[in-house]
Each structure stands twice: as C-alpha cells, then as structure tokens.
Amino acid sequence: MLHYIVTRAFLTLFTLLVFLCSYVYAASGSVEPVKACVIARDVPLTAAVRAHIADCLGWQDNSALLLCRGLYAPIMSDTVDNSGALLVSADNVTLSQNGWSKLSGNVSVGQGARIAEGDLAYIYRDAKTNQVTKIKLLGNVHYTEPDKLIFANMVVLNPQDKSGKLTDILYRFDVKPAGAQLPAWGRAKFAKRLPNTDYVLHDTTYTTCAPKDNAWQLDAGELNLYTTKATGVAKHARLRMYDKTILYWPYISFPISKQRKSGFLIPIIGSSNIGGADLAWPYYWNIAPNYDATLVPHLYTKRGMMFGGTARYLTKQSTGYFTGNWLPGDRAYRNFLADNLALHPSFSGASTNRWAVLLHDNTQVSPQVHLGVHYNQVSDPYYPQDFSTNLLTMTQNQLLRQGDINYTNEHWFLSAMAQSYQTLHPINQSEVADVYERLPQLLAHATYADLPLHTNFEVLGQYDAFHWPQGMLLQPEGPRYYLNPKFSGSAQRSWGYVTPTIELVQNYYDLQDYGASYTRATFSRTIPRYGIDSGLFFERATSIVGESVTHTLEPRLSYLNVPFVDQTSIPVFDSGYMIFNYDQLFRNNRFSGFDRIGDANQLIYALSSRWLVDETGQEIASVSIGQIRYFADRRVQLCSNPNGNCADSPLRLGYTSPVSSASPIASRLNYRLSGRWSLRADYVWDPYTVATNNGSVNVNYQADVNKLLSFGYTYLVSGNVVARLNQILQSKPLNQVNIAYAWPLSDRISTLGIYGYNISERYNMMTFLGLQYDTCCFAVRLLGGSVFKSLSPDTVTPQYNNGVYLQILLKGLGSVANSDPSSTIHSYLPSYVDIF
C-alpha cells in the first residue's frame, strides 16, 4: 500500500495552509475494505435483501434469545481526537491548487467520534481562510458516530458545524425507544444531519423489528428524529404490517428513547354492550420534566363524545394526579332514565351529562408535617357501572373525599382531617347505607416507652364533629370527644413475656336532632379497662426438605376485664361488628370505632407454631389457633335506641352470640415454599351454632415472570345481602370463588384468565379470557370479558357488562389498547407484568 507525504515545496506550503486549522493526517497502516451495503431505497425488501441488510447492520442470529432470536453487534466508533481536528487516511491522495483535494482507495475521515469510510473522497477548502469547508465521500460509505451506524451512497460532511447530508442510506440508531426490544433501523433516499445531531430523513422507513422480520414498519415522506428531544415526528406516514398498508397518518409523533415526549398516542379501540364501539385518540403532553398530562377525546357510539384526561405532577414536596371526564348528553343514559321513570319518579328531570373527577395529592411540607388530599366525585350512581369493566370499581358505592394534615415527632402524632363520602344508590344494586361526615376530626396520639420500672404510657385523644349528609332524613349530629390514657408494664425474657395493662376510656357527646322530638342531648361515660397478656417461646432444631430450620411452639394467654356500661341510648357514628378471625382474639374491643366499648370478662388462649430458616430467619410456615372463654354474657350491643331498649339482629355482618360461653375457634395457616408457592388460609368454627362462621383460602404460585396461578375462596355468614323485589333485604352466606392465571404456552404465545363465581347465588361474577402473542417487535392480545353489573328488575336474572378487546403493541411506536382490561388484570393478578 502506497502512502504519501508531500515533500514538494509548493505543495507542502499548500497542504499546511489547508490543514493547519483542521489537522489532516495521512495515516499509515491498512484499512479493511468495507462490504457494499448501499441499497437503493426503491429496491423491494425480499428475503435475500433482508438477509444482506442484517449482515450489514451487524445482526447475529442466536436461537438462545427466545424472543428476538438474535441481537446486534456493538457499533465500534473509535474516538480519535476530541478537539474537533480532522484525521484523514487513504491509499492515494491528489492535492490541487483549485480548492479541493481528491482521496481514493480505503478513504477514512475522522472528526472526534465521527468516522466516515468510503471508496472516494473530495476535500474542499475556503480559498481565503484555507479552512476545510466540506468533505464529500462517494461509493459504499460507512459512517459511524456514537449509537449510530449508517451506510450511504454519498455523504457530505461539514466539519465547521458538524452537519451533513447523506443519500441512499441504510441506518441503525442504537437508542432504544420505550418498550422496544431492539434499536430502530430503516432506509431513506435522502437525509440531513443537523449540527445538534438531529436527523431529517426523506422517503424513509422506520422499524424496531429485526432486519429479517417484516412485521411492521413506518413509511414516511419525511421523518424527523430529534435525538436531543428523544422524539420522532413522521409526516405523510403509512403503517405497514407484513408489507400491507393498514393505516395512514398525515402527522404522527412517537418516542425514540425511553424519555417522555409530547404527541398523539396510538388510538384506543374497544367495544362493549354498554357503550358500543368506542374510539379514543389520546394526546400526551410532556409539560415539564416533573409535569405531564394525557388528554383523551373518546367517542362511544351508543353514548356520545367524552372529553377527559389525567394530569400528573412531581415536586420536591408533592406528588399527585388529577383525572376528569365529561360526556354531555349521554344517549344511552337518557334511554335508561326514560325506561325506569314510571317506577322511579325521582328520575324526572335528571341530567344526562355524565362526569367524574378524582384528585389525589401527597405533600411533605416538612420532615414532620404531611398533607394529603383525596377527592372522588361522579355525576350519578350509575357512572362506575357504565364506564368500567373492573368488578372492584363497578361495585364501589362509597367514594371517599378526604383531606388531612399530620404532624409527627418522636412521641406525638397530631392530625386534623375533614372526611365525607359520596354514597351511590343505584336502583339495580342492593341498598348501601350513607356514612356520617367528619367535619372535622382532630386527633392527638402520644407514646412514651421505656419509662421507669419498665412501664409505657400511651394516650389517644380524638374530637369528631359528625354531620349527616344534607338532603337526608334527620339524624343525630354533633361532636364526640374521646380520651383514652393507657399504662402498661413489660417483663420480657428470651423464653417469654408478661404485659399488664390498665386504661381508661372517656367519651362525651353533645348531640342535636336526637330522639323523637329531635332535641339536644348529651352523654358522658367513663369506662376502665384491665388486661394482662403473656406468652412463652419454645424452639427446637429440625429440618424440612433437607434444610435446617428452627421450629417454635408459642402458647399465649391473656385476660381482659371491662365492666358493663349501658350505651344503647348513644347513637352509632362509626362503630360496627368486626369479622371474627384470629386477629380479633386479642383486641380489647370487639367493636370498631369508639361509639361502643364492649364489656368483657374473658380469657383468651392461643397456640402458634412457626418454622424459620436458620440462615435467613425467613418464615417458611406458621399455624395458629385460639379461642376466647367468656365468664359473662356480652350485654353491650351495636343497636341504638333513645328509649334504651333494642337488640341486634343475628343477621348483622360479624355478629356472634352474646350468650355463648366461648367464642368461635379461629385458626390461621401461612405457608411459603421455594419462593414459588404461598398459601394463606383462615378458618373460624362457631361451636354455638355448630357451623362455620367464616373462612378463606388463597393459594398463589409464581414460577417465573407472568407464570402465575391464583386461587381464592371466601365464605362468610350473612355476607351476601340481596334486595329482592317487594321484599325486605335478605342476608345469606357469602360463598364465592376466584381463579386467575397467566401462563405461557410457548416462547411467544401465552394465555391469561380470570373467573369469579358466586356459589350462594349460582351465577358468574366475572369471566375474562385472553390470548397473547408476543414477538421481538410487536405483541397482540385478544381478550373477552363478562362482568356482573346488577340483577335485573325482577332481581333474579344477573345482568353483565360484556366486552371484547383487541390490543396491539408496536414496540417502540405505541399500542392500540384499552385500559380497562389492564385494570382488571392488575386487580386479580397484581404481580403480572403487562407490556400493554
């Protein structure tokens, strides 16, 4: 190979003038020939052409990579000099006095991290300044810079501002778009590289599929790849799948990295029996690094046009979001009101404008002060039924509205809160009771541990101003003052403990609208509470499946004494029976809230056993069982009567007999093995009724990502409340089962399903089944769902929301998807990783 160092005096001076500022170097050593990878833009992408492109782009087949079946070799771009100087090498150099020089044979031009190699090059200089103004490379040009590989027929480089032009190019950009498995590649007839490293391509293609895969590509008249903004903008774009054009966009914007960016997202397409076909085209607005919004115009063929969206924010102190939706003149809802007007005159004049708002905020004002806001409101009781397919959302009839501010230090927790609920009363569901508003609640809780003589002191004070929602029947209202100081001792050893406790409960009420005459009434009560809790620890070394474990035996014995104080005349604002289970054995009050302080003279005995891994202390399994022995009947009841005489119904949720000599027997089992299987079971047997009080079993199996099985069974006495036509509410046992799974059938095909069945009523609660096909560059999922909404007017036949959803994900470009299936999947398979 011949190398030139110009020695003639005239040409030496000329060369120094040309390259003094830009530093040209005629390199020694050999440059490996570049394989011809320039392919005209209009050449069809046959299998042979794609195979050739794959070789050019550095694709390496690898069957061990199951999803993509291969990967790209790294782009090698040797940084020569960060000063911006030019480095040039070639087999032959011809210098001319006419302002340009010719290089041929293995030409290499480098500037910083940019390297261009080709067969022939021309270097142009400015006659006045002698600076290099342009470098043109011709013939099988191979161009690299960080994360970019380009082949072109011609490349023009402008060293001064680092811009350039390229023709007939094949490119690969290694910054992966969000959701993409592989970087993007494509072809273009003409391209410009801007000084800021952005690219503008004309008559171009764009895809994140492997080179041999024709699943999808974007053909565009013009494609702007704003690398500095991580955004791609295509004009006059056609989406082609398997070489067939399926969609045209005059303008589309999409991410070209994992960074967020503004632009229209892929349309949302869905269909259901309650809304008809629906179409939405979301617009994502990246307002700032810590603010964004998604605006969603949504067309329902049976209802009309809905406008909505979600705004999110994140600051040094706050995080939160706001969601709102508005659908004026809902046609389907208007028909529903008209069809039921005869039986429900209150429907007359009801607005058909549908809307919903949700605000959620968490603000850390200081290390000790926290502010929280949660506000939820809908236009009417039927909004959750009509605009959701998630059973948990559809049947939610108590919508929380709450604001609170909290202060915490070493000993004190102070809180101020305002709280209310929007209670929904749809005619096609069982009646739900309204809830008192707290306007406001003030709370102070202090804890002082490790006082002299191993004692602890704790005090809780709370003020609640209860207010009944406006527009309802007169109900007792007013403030309640609650004070609960508590002293406890502690004697602990490695083998056991004893903890005696003495406390005082003080309540005071100042009520309005109370009794038949709706007059003012005050109540005051002071109740002492005494208890002693004790436990022992025994352990031994053993093994499970060859693994060394510690097996414990932990008996526990507690006594509680609370004298009886008649509380029947006091109204119930926030108290209720607790569902009896193992956790309730050791509570000092069998009622929730503060309106009822249960009398007690009882002994609690329980036994627990655990198996712990010696090396990590992780619990493999535990089993517990316990019961309460009563020495007196429980006289305090939940019911309220100003005249002082009432009795609770045995059908109340959580009710247990007040005259039995022993409580139900509560047991619990937890089991986890190999990080795959987990089981939790609760079972409560009531010897007084000689029947099961409640029970539940939850089994979960996770062998790998999205290889899940879940089984749940629930039984609860008086847990199924049904409203029959022209009949009083009926309370029956709740008896239902839920099954959910996600399972791969092959490397690319997987399935998932959710099934819920009400055994008591003998109808399905939910049926969801989906089939998913996932590849390296796209995924498609078909789901069909049927979700219980309500009973028919005769309260016999179940009514369902039915829907079929086709979800398509073009990895790196976006997805055609409906959010409702994802919401349902995450509710019943919380560990499922959803790529849509």
Overview of this structure, please?
There is one protein chain. The protein has 836 residues and is mostly beta strands. The chain has a 26-stranded antiparallel beta barrel. Strands 3, 4, 5, 6, 7, 8, 9, 10, 11, 12, 13 and 14 form a twelve-stranded antiparallel beta sheet that branches. Strands 1-2 form a two-stranded antiparallel sheet. It is elongated and about 115 Å long. The model is unreliable at 1-34 (pLDDT under 50).
What number is the mean pLDDT?
86
- Structural class by SSE content: mainly beta
Our estimate of the beta-strand percent is: over 45%
The shape, in one word, is elongated
> Could you tell me the radius of gyration in angstroms?
37 Å
Distance between the termini: 57 Å
Largest sheet: 26 strands, antiparallel, barrel
Summarize this structure as a short list of keywords or feature phrases.
6% helix; 6 helices; 26-stranded antiparallel beta barrel
Topology:
Layout: H1 9-19, H2 47-56, E1 59-61, E2 70-72, E3 86-89, E4 92-95, E5 100-111, E6 114-125, E7 132-145, E8 148-158, E9 163-173, E10 184-193, E11 199-206, E12 216-226, E13 231-241, E14 244-255, E15 263-264, E16 268-272, E17 276-280, E18 283-288, E19 291-300, E20 304-314, E21 318-327, H3 331-339, E22 354-364, E23 369-378, H4 383-386, H5 391-394, E24 398-408, E25 412-423, E26 437-451, E27 455-467, E28 478-489, E29 491-493, E30 496-514, E31 519-536, E32 538-544, E33 547-562, E34 576-577, E35 591-592, E36 600-613, E37 619-630, E38 665-673, E39 677-686, E40 691-704, E41 707-722, E42 730-744, E43 749-758, E44 763-774, E45 778-791, E46 798-810, E47 814-816, H6 819-828
